[in-house]
Hints:
Immunoglobulin-like, binds zinc ion, alpha/beta, about 400 residues, disordered N terminus, Aminopeptidase
Amino acid sequence: MILRHIRTALFFMSPLLPSLASANFSIETDFPGGNALVEKIEGNVVHIAPDNRDSRLPWFYWYFAIKGAGGQTVTFVLNPMHIGARGPGISTDGGATWSWLGAESAKDGTFSHTFPAAANDVRFSSGMPYVKSNFDKFLAAHKDNPFLHVETLAKTGKGRSAPLLLLTDSQRKAPYVVALTARMHCCEMMGSYVLEGIIEGVLANDEYGQWLRKNVDFFIMPFSDFDGVEDGDQGKNRTPHDHNRDFGDGSIYPEVIALKERLPAWSNGRPLVFFDIHNPALKGDVHEVIQFLAGESPEQADSLAKFAALLERNQQGELLFRQNMIMKFGTGYNKWSETPPPISSGWARTLPNCILSATLELPYANASAMTVNADSARSFGRDIAWALKSFLQENPAAGRQ
Ligand SMILES: [Zn+2]
């Protein structure tokens, strides 16, 4: 146990060494998505901070395991801005499933937890971390589906194989293409649950799924910054720029370069809808409501308004969406010095076959007073899938391009 502590302390190169003599548990981050700086451990009080790594501005993602704490009560101290609207996320199954500790669990950035005697590996995070193993588990449930194809999108900078998911009938081309990207900012994991919900909606054995599989080919980039996801980086404001600022000339990230090459060729002129899924800041007024960020042209704004109206009309999931939850171009943080902005959804709007492209911001924990978690985010994803069917059925693009 003490050896583990020494390793942790050395690994983080913390300026303040933990009190090795008094701690009889360990704080670990050596697993996919792990991120924490252990500032100090005094008795059963642990001071934790996010490891910003190469982010130019401070950010809030952290994810650690505490091991060997069975039967003890441990208090964790963080910056209050680094704990979200419903408290920390907790997982007792090694990061496979998550729940929130609750809004009342943390006060002034401090929360305590009493570990059952048998508890060994308990995970805590600013959110509900989702890494490649979570995605693999989701795909395994659909592995025999002939519509689902997993390929390698690109070799990442660190040599990993970034996955590309295609939902398509390999016997023929569908008339429409929908492209979905997530984790441009790698820490924004709640978007991955939305993506699962959209995929479930497409693969469902109901009239929506059947229509979508017949009429739409899906191009899905689940981990746009795959190294960042697996390494547990913030990703936001990464140096020299982050993945979602890499869509101007001279892109530097392999996943972005591959997307820019492959999607135009793959869609091959077919009408394209593009959504890039994000999470905003951890909490705060504007960050606790679902928002779509509209594009710069009246045509794109009009398309998004139509989609949003259909999403409101069709929604059956746990998260409430209203068609006015659109951040118009030039308002809020949807302001840019360049048009289109050098972000993924802005790049997609430059494609001549793009009939709708927007950024989606799903709150981490609290959406208009409703709880965002894996299940509710998936239900919102299914709502999006159903709205896509209605949008493409009711807004045939053929006449507009
Ligand atoms: Zn983002």
